[in-house]
Amino acid sequence: MTQQLTGVLTGKVAVIAGGTGGIGYASAKRLAAAGARIVLLGRNVDKLASLANELPGTGHGSVVVSVEDSNALELAVSKIQSSFGRVDILVNSAGMTKAIPHKDLDALNDVLFDQVVVANLRAPFATIRAFAPLLRANGDGLVVNISSIAASNGLGSNVAYCAAKAGLDTMALALGRALSPEIRVINVSPGVVDTNFVPGRDSSFNEKQAATTPLKRIGTVDDIAAAVEACATTLRFVTGTTIQVDGGRHLGPV
């Protein structure tokens, strides 16, 4: 684990969409250790409550919500405002995908294409839209979206996923401008990360990716969480940009 900051986020509230996923929960742990109170968002009530209780520090919570449902998001915002009184940080780490060869156009049917775009592009926007009033109220709000180098190299799990993440990166440009100066918007862009996010990818896939990555390994969830923490703590003069955290994978295979 990279060096952990402590206490610098005391008094802050961080909402983690996709808070039960690998990157989302690793980000929650880092922000909690830095002093923030955490609200995990997700669909599994039992898992949410259990993971919230395991976070360092006190005063954490969770809300069961699908971030693809804008009406449900509005209710979640009301609950969080009532219970926590503020939101300072929003981490958009929810999403889904499915590995489909890019040449297999028929396998990427309309239903799956729309599902991927909704989960990885529309839902993050809807979540930002719902939480923007609370983030703006403190004059120092932060949104961190978890993107992917698939946005720039077009080599992701499927064509729709690449397109959705490219849209997410462009959205950071637009919202970084539109929401300033009260809210900063930063995308963190991983390469291959050691999670179960893409169904069907196993250790042999990870080993092949590591061998062709300049730093000779794939990412860990803590690598990405450390970047999220940096956005909230040390990278204070940054907005509207995408930070690649991929071991140099965007440079191409070595």
Instruction: Please outline the major beta sheet.
Output: 7 strands, parallel
Low-pLDDT windows of residues: none
Strand order of the largest sheet: 3-2-1-4-5-6-7
One letter per element, helices H and strands E, the order comes to EHEHEHEHEHHEHHE
Output the number of helix runs: 8
CATH level-two architecture: 3-Layer(aba) Sandwich
- Fraction of residues in β-strands: 5-15%
Top-tier CATH class: Alpha Beta
Helix content: 40-55%
Q: Average pLDDT, to the nearest integer?
A: 94
Please report the total strand number as a whole number.
7
Provide the CATH topology: Rossmann fold
The fourth-level CATH homologous superfamily is: NAD(P)-binding Rossmann-like Domain
Number of domains: 1
Ends: how far apart? 26 Å
- Measured on Cα atoms, how large is the radius of gyration? 17 Å
- CA-based shape: globular
Structural class: alpha/beta
Overview of the molecule:
This protein is globular. The protein has a seven-stranded parallel sheet, sandwiched between helices. The chain contains eight helices and seven strands. The chain has a single domain, classed as Rossmann fold (3-Layer(aba) Sandwich). The two termini are about 25 Å apart. The mean pLDDT is about 95. The longest helix has 28 residues. With about 250 residues, it is α/β, with parallel strands linked by helices.
